[in-house]
Amino acid sequence: MAIAQLGLEGVFEEQAIPLPMRRAGMAEWHGDHVRILDRRVLPLTERYVDCYAAADVAVAIKDMVIQGAYSISIAAGYGLALSAPDNSDAGSLSSLQADAEHLIATRPTGLALKRMMLACLNTASEAIDLGKNIREELVALVNQGASALARQGYETGKYACDQIADGASILTHCFPDRSFVYLLLETARRKKSLSVICSETRPYLQGARLSALCSHFIGFPTRVITDGMGGFLMRDGQIDVFITAADRVCMDGTVCNKIGTYQYALAAHANNVPYYTLRQSGPDRESKSEADIKVEYRDGEEIVQFSGVRTAPLGVEGLYPAFDIVPPDLVSRIVTDRGVYSPSRIREYVHTPPSVRDTVV
Amino acid sequence: MAIAQLGLEGVFEEQAIPLPMRRAGMAEWHGDHVRILDRRVLPLTERYVDCYAAADVAVAIKDMVIQGAYSISIAAGYGLALSAPDNSDAGSLSSLQADAEHLIATRPTGLALKRMMLACLNTASEAIDLGKNIREELVALVNQGASALARQGYETGKYACDQIADGASILTHCFPDRSFVYLLLETARRKKSLSVICSETRPYLQGARLSALCSHFIGFPTRVITDGMGGFLMRDGQIDVFITAADRVCMDGTVCNKIGTYQYALAAHANNVPYYTLRQSGPDRESKSEADIKVEYRDGEEIVQFSGVRTAPLGVEGLYPAFDIVPPDLVSRIVTDRGVYSPSRIREYVHTPPSVRDTVV
Lengths: 361, 361
Fold this sequence. Notes:
Two copies of one chain form a homodimer.
Chain A: H1 2-6, E1 27-29, E2 34-37, E3 48-51, H2 54-62, H3 69-83, H4 93-104, H5 112-130, H6 134-163, E4 168-173, H7 177-189, E5 194-199, H8 206-218, E6 222-225, H9 230-235, E7 241-245, E8 248-249, E9 255-258, H10 261-270, E10 275-278, E11 305-306, E12 309-310, E13 317-318, E14 323-326, E15 333-336, E16 339-341
Parallel strand pairs in A: 4-5, 4-7, 5-6, 7-10, 10-15
Antiparallel strand pairs in A: 1-2, 2-3, 8-9, 9-14, 11-12, 15-16
Helix pairs in contact in A: 2-3, 3-4, 3-5, 3-6, 4-5, 5-6, 6-7, 7-8
């Protein structure tokens, strides 16, 4: 079941994939609960959070037990299935709608979560019309979505691999999710070498904890820097490519990604280091430009502490914009499941045949 | 004694000055030992490290008990005095020289430390020639140097204050030392307002711990961000001025400062935010350009942990370049004790009359 859900059967063994990209590393349906790997305590601890209601999943997403736009969408989809009746009761639709809105509100910047919720509500309506079991239909939909995401991510990873020279030194920021992991897996499969520098990405350290874990697991030499160091390394000629994921790409090529990405994109541009954005599902048709993006601010308390230890004096507040906007002129290429685009041509993505036909988000 | 040493008598009461800028907050001579405030555990703990030998002071500097080029030079000067005999014994000179070299090697990038050591060795030679007590002469020299640094820093702070509009929002990185603190004190004295955003500055968090402490103590609204956030805030129009200190300024206007400064200077330049460098003692005459700067790398283990908690997987290394080089075209103004210079004219500093006549470093 796990391999089939993963959708990469025949390419990689489940055990060859780093934990955060296994199905158990995202979110798994367990009949009466959703089991989510707690990414906050990786890499040193492997702990799972069991959620028995959609509200629990909402808390887990809000508290960063799981992160990454696509992984969140899978967890949220199973979360909504927890609210669905184990029958075709039409009366459940309004409460499902309320739970979906609650889940969407946890992380408003990315769009995969919203798309998953809308797809789930459509599926629930259809199940009711056809007298099918709503919960089973939702679980099947999320399984299908997760599988499609894996295959779409792998297509993206292969295109990215084509772009990167053997022996390149790459800088990443935050955790660029499955396209990045599949890029690394594919690079290893093709017996090319890489050295990987992960920017730690305060306050949650996704770079130090997740990217470094995946790169080291796959076997590449992996080093961690703080979020202020990438510019120096680029200026010093130590970086060949800067790579991130994107939480959203606009139709004009604007990239929205983890806070810190803009500074690195500026430094890459100033030092002729190409910046590749991995965005497996292409641009968001509803986002024409950055005017359509509302950057979420998170709780400033998360900034003035580290591992539960307060860092700043009492009375001093933290300020926490969670995402950066990178204008298109700072982006070299946007790598998708349908090919590699310059930012000014990313709108051509929507007219290119899909790589995977059964996507959900 | 403390007030007289401080050198700002009549301007600010000792108690009105934030702890890290009091004499007790740098290094104090206690007859048979040097007492150094442990900046690593600020702001929540006030702890002092007593050093009874030059080698102890060297360890304290290397381990970041004290930081900041000027403060380090004071601690090192007293440290060398610990090695000096309480008489005029000429035989002590060679071991003083060895201890001075050992102290210089602790932090090779800044120059104040080296200058203080050379001044101390000169003073020791003179004391021997004149039959004076070497230790007393060294302590007197360091006291004089500390007092001169305070007055020179205050002149710089006043020039900086002239540049900054009432109500401005300023971004700082690392702890810009006494010129910055005196800028804040002078701004408050002139009854102008400021809001201060401190970039936390991993891995040692000097911004969250020291800059925020000083700004909050003086009474300005103070917020902390991570090192990846300043670019977003500048692009979003939330920053009016970016201010740092400099560990070194070259004669061509190149600035060397804490890692992370370059990325912020790039972002400031891209968003028309002025970047002011505070450098109370002006450019280094021996450094023509960045070719004369050797950036030190510190132990990568400091990157992959926080408060003793490991952040990255075992097997992954940290990479820790400690300083950034900022080319002159990214610097708006260099503020010194002798006035405010554009980077292209900073060499004029050396032909301008000194603000303080008895400087040591």
